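Re: that chain you flagged

S.,

Sorry for the slow reply, it's been a week of failed gels. I finally had a moment to sit down with the sequence you sent. For the record, here it is as I used it:
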Amino acid sequence: MPNSEDFRSALYSILSSFRGDNVDVTSGDLHRRVGGYPGRNHAMPVCCSVMRQAMQSGDVIIAEPPKGNGATLTIRYRLPR
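Prediction finished late last night. Pasting the structure tokens below so you have them in one place:
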């Protein structure tokens, strides 16, 4: 099962590879990239937590599931980091 460092590494890889003013990252896509989703033992709460912790000034939550953690959490990260 992936841990917070796995998600953090994958997220920063995405953020460093994109060019432009911003990039939208969706938790379901990030979790699929790391592995283990969809699946019975997914780590979606950890994935969403890492995404929120990575937010800086200027970043915004574009979409959020009703319970807060889910595959549709989408954050627009401002670039460059």
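What I noticed first: The chain has three helices and three strands.

Talk soon,
D.
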